[in-house]
Write a structure and sequence with these properties.
Order of helices and strands: HEEEEEEEEE
Largest sheet: 9 strands, antiparallel
Oligomer: single chain
Shape: globular
Number of strands: 9
């Protein structure tokens, strides 16, 4: 239980610098993996900040009892962002991911590249809804180094703009 409190405290500390930027979008997402063995499912924090224009960061922590823990970070740069109609935008990006998953006594670390393709809508001036599907390829380290590790990641969520 103390580890969970520590992880949530670190997450809160990460929010402070992000919120210091003007025009920052903070929100939540549900992330998922579409292939067997993908541990990218769970609630996530989503930050869209102008620190690096066009980038979106996602942090995900997942706990399940005492024998499962997962942490993941993704950072995407929206290379193409075009308006489809009204407040609906389409985007394609390039990014990276890094994650660590611990199940029982086995820990796996993975990292790689990703290509998010998504839709974003601003129904209100301060509220954004988004959905994306993201092909990803990387490498893993458990039980031994393996490459390539293919996955299809996805997310649906919202951000409130400050």
């Amino acid at each position: 239980m103390n580890n969970k409190i520590l992880v949530l405290a670190v997450l809160a500390l990460l929010l402070v610098p992000a919120a210091a930027f003007s025009a920052t979008g903070l929100g939540a997402a549900y992330t998922f993996g579409l292939n067997n063995g993908d541990n990218s499912t769970g609630a996530a924090l989503s930050i869209n900040t102008p620190a690096i224009p066009g980038t979106v960061q996602t942090l995900r922590f997942t706990f399940s009892g005492d024998d499962y823990f997962s942490f993941a970070l993704a950072d995407d740069w929206w290379v193409i962002q075009e308006n489809i109609s009204g407040s609906l935008d389409f985007y394609i990006g390039l990014g990276f991911f890094a994650g660590i998953t611990s199940v029982d006594d086995t820990t796996d670390f993975s990292l790689g590249g990703r290509i998010p393709v998504g839709l974003s809508m601003m129904p209100l001036d301060f509220a954004e809804l988004f959905a994306e599907i993201t092909p990803a390829m990387g490498l893993g380290f458990e039980p031994e180094l393996y490459f390539p590790s293919w996955s299809v990641q996805g997310a649906v969520g919202f951000r409130i703009w400050f």
